[in-house]
Amino acid sequence: MMEFVAELSLWEIYAIVCGLLVSLGLWAGLIVGRRFSIALRVLPLLGIAVTTPVTERFVIPYLSERYPVIFANKDLPKKIDQKTTLTKIDLTDHIYSYFYDLDDDDDFDPPLVKSAQLTDLCDFLLPKFSSGEASLANYIYQLKGRDYSFSVDSTDCS
Q1: Are the C-beta atoms of 94 and 133 separated by less than 8 Å?
Q2: Is the pLDDT at 37 greater than 90, yes or no?
Q3: CA angle, 29 as apex, 26 and 31 as ends, to 5°?
Q4: Is the pLDDT assigned to residue 4 strictly greater than 90?
Q5: Could you give the CA distance from residue 98 to residue 136 in angstroms, rounded to a whole number?
Q6: Can you spell out the DSSP letters for 21-58?
Q7: How does pLDDT run across 51-62, given as a tens digit for each residue?
Q8: DSSP state, residue 107
Q9: Relative to the CA of 109, which of 5, 39, 76, 147 has its CA 20 to 30 Å away?
């Protein structure tokens, strides 16, 4: 059920949270409204007012932690630099795969890219390796219909 919610756009997530909070406000207003007549008008408005903080502080962090790949792919494709576009992120059997499209770059050399970015990659990946979330990260670049790749594991970062 929650995976379905994670796949929705952000505005749809906000709308669902708002609907639930307003419904809760109406329900509470009906119960409390017998004693305090203003409650039926105020509590649904309170539900609307707290939608953004509840969504940003609780719902989005929960979904992004529980379904990191779904949330990471929401912003894709994403231009990394003038020649590189991140198109997809995948996590299967503790192996992250990052897929990139390259615009004409005849000088692309995967081992050179790996060595040039290894420090930054390790800073990002070491917590994932240490926690057991990931055991390997593959970086796959597509250029003119051909795939070029390299991998990073914990031994590269020691």
Answers
A1: yes
A2: no
A3: 115
A4: no
A5: 11
A6: HHHHHHHHHHHHTTT-TTHHHHHHHHHHHTHHHHIIII
A7: 999 999 999 999
A8: T
A9: 76
CB within 8 A of 9, min separation 6: which ones? 74
Q: How far apart are the first and last CA of the chain?
A: 39
Written as six digits, the tokens of 38 are 């203003």
Q: Which helix (H) or strand (E) holds 117?
A: helix 110-131
Instruction: Tell me how far apart the alpha carbons of residues 104 and 35 are, in angstroms, rounded to a whole number.
Output: 71
Residue type, 46: L
pTM exceeding 0.90 = no
pLDDT of residue 105: 64
Q: What is the pLDDT of residues 74-105, one digit of tens each?
A: 889 999 988 899 999 999 999 999 999 998 76
Strand 136-143 versus strand 95-102 pairing type: parallel
Q: List residues bridging with 142 in a β-sheet.
A: 101, 147
